[in-house]
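Entry 14. Structure prediction run on the chain below.
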Amino acid sequence: MALDTQTDLRNEMIYSVFVRNYSKSGKFDAVTADLQRIKDLGTDILWLLPIYPIGEANRKGTLGSPYAIKDYRGINPEYGTLDDFKALTEKAHALGMKVMLDIVYNHTSPDSVLATTHPEWFYHDADGNLTNKVGDWSDVKDLDYGHHELWQYQIDTLLYWSQFVDGFRCDVAPLVPLDFWLEARQQVNAQHPGTLWLAESAGSGFIQELRAQGYVGLSDSELFQAFDMTYDYDVFSDFKEYWQGQSTVERYVDLLKRQDATFPANYVKMRFLENHDNARMMSLLHSEAEAVNNLTWIFLQRGIPLVYNGQEFLAEHEPSLFEKDDIVDDRHGDVTALIQKLVAIKQLPIMRAADYQLAVVEDGVIKVSYRGAGEALVAWIPLKGQVTDVATTLDATKTYQNLLTDADVTFDAGKIALTGQPVLIKYATDTAATKVADQSN
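Output returned:
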């Protein structure tokens, strides 16, 4: 873990925007006009997918992927101008949000500025042509960081954008050498202290495949030396397998517990149910009630939650990366109030407690516990809407409220009834003896 990473990030929320598909116009100014709503949702960090010009060579689809970048230091004219971008960032800052810019340092489009001016900085095949490591990424060519002179160009680019933004989400970060990321962080943070660094880390299968071919494939433990946050891809496939009936919730929760014991104490994982590379959460879930349960789950975990634009309206269609594919009419509900409530819970002091526990209890319900100085928070989350009774040693003579609904929580013979939705209780722990007794709650 980066030594200066602040664990306060665990109490914040990221909101991700793909400018092209965010509105019918696909312009910066449409996002700018909606920033108050994004802020009111509870957003602390606004993550913008790449905003740079897109290459024409080998373009996928009509408009191309924003990750096939032609010029790292330019603005996609389809979105607007540099002044339009600055207006967006300035308003976001005025509203109290930070802005995180997507950077893509493993590859560029085949006709990029760097491919034209410095082809020697790229990987080449046996015939001397520019090539890439991942075969189906046919619209990009990979940079070779064995050429050290490339490093400062890339770092200078980060320093350029740092005059406008507060941090970087780094695409396929495991494919770029760790020493580069360490040097980039050192130089950027020296001039811009507190810069945010989020790595798109990868699952074990992808890392093993890269290493088997002799390429760089950084694990989370390596990335955490340079980054503040990494993706949850090391367990996300297990979450999906549970939902698809291919694995158990016990296996999934056990992996999460191993995360918490394996990574440094100040690790920050980005928790999500969907993002621009994955299908919408409603492709796994089957109702708004299940969405409530699972959104509560990602907010209650130790880590920083992500909301992808449209998720708050239970969007069902996964927007294309290669075409104009508006999200504005893809609305099948509205969980804005839930997210706002979860943000408020996430910001409670107890959610910063060092004592964090996960367990699977009756009928596969996940129990989350935080215990700190003089108080505790316990949540029972039925991911699949289980209706069951869960045992507790909480004092049934006292009145407790469900933080999620403000309704009173009722007890019967030492059990709390779950009716398919989460129950979250915060209570005082007055003495050390009480704390020991509460371990069974």
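The CA atoms of residues 315 and 330 lie 5 Å apart.
Filed with the rest of this week's runs.
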